[in-house]
Amino acid sequence: MPHTLERSRKSLLVVAWLSLVGMGFWQLFLYSNTPGDAALPLQKVWPAKTQLVRDSDKANLVIFAHPHCPCSKATVGELERLIPHIQGKVKSLVVFFKPKAKDEAWVKSDLWQKAQGLSEVQAIVDEDGLEAQRFGAKTSGQAFLYDNQGKLAFQGGLTRERGHMGDSQGRDAILHFIKTGKATLASAPVFGCALKSPERAVARGQQ
User: Which of 5-9, 26-30, 105-109 has the lowest mean pLDDT?
Assistant: First the structure.
C-alpha cells in the first residue's frame, strides 16, 4: 500500500508539472499572436503637419518603433529583407519614440543602430511621440506605406507574430505594391510593444 500511495503521489506531481508547462506554452502562444493596438490615421494621405520629409518621386515607407521593444527586432529584420526589392523605389524611415525626459543615448539603442545601418534607411528621433500621434501610430512596428502622391496604400505590421520573422501579410502587401502599384490589402495586424507605454517585455527601467 505505501508503494502504491507513493506512485500515485509522483503521478500527481508529474501531471501537475505537465499542466504548468502546458499553461506556460499556451500563455506564450497567446502573447506571441496577440497584436498591439491598430493605428488610427487621421486621414488617408500624408499628414500635413508632419515634420518628416516625403519623397514625391517614389513611394514612402514610415515605420514607428520603440527603441527598446524586443518584438521590433523582427520588424527591422523584415525591413532588411525587403531592401533588395524596394531599393530605389521606396524611401524608408524608421521613427523612434523618445520621451522628453530621456537623452539621445537612450533612444540610440542597438535597434536604432541596426536600422540606421541599413541601406537607404533613415532612423529618426520622434521627440515625445509627436510624429506617431500625427500619423496615428500606437504600437512599435507600425508601418505606413504611401504612394508617390502621398496617398496611404497600406498600414500594419511587417511580422506575422511578436518577435518572429517570416512571410507575413504586411510584407506580401508591400511587395505586391512594388510590383503592381497596389497593395494586396489595406491593413494588417501589428505585433509589438505599445509606443508610449511599453509592455513588460521591455527591460525594467528603460521605459
Answer: 26-30
pLDDT value at residue 164: 61
What gap in Å lies between CA 124 and CA 93, rounded to an integer?
7
Which phi and psi angles does 111 have, rounded to 5°?
-65, -40
CA distance 131 to 22: 41
Hey, CA dihedral for 155, 105, 98, 49, is it positive or negative? negative
Listed residue (77, 68, 61, 73) closest to 97, CA to CA: 68
Distance CA 129, CA 137 (A): 9
Cell output for 15: 501531471
Three-state DSSP at 137 gives coil
pTM: 0.78
Please answer whether residues 155 and 183 qualify as being in contact, where contact means their C-beta atoms are separated by less than 8 angstroms.
no
For cell 543602430, the residue is 113
State residue 43's pLDDT score: 72
Which helix or strand (DSSP H or E) is residue 125 part of? Answer: strand 121-127
In angstroms, rounded to a whole number, what is the distance separating the alpha carbons of residues 67 and 96? 6
Average pLDDT over residues 14-41: 44
**What local confidence, expressed as pLDDT, does residue 203 receive?**
42
Rounded Cα distance between 47 and 12, Å, is 60
Residue 62: C-alpha distances to residues 58, 129, 135, 145, 185 (Å): 13, 14, 9, 6, 17
Give the count of alpha carbons within 13 A of 59, CB side only: 25
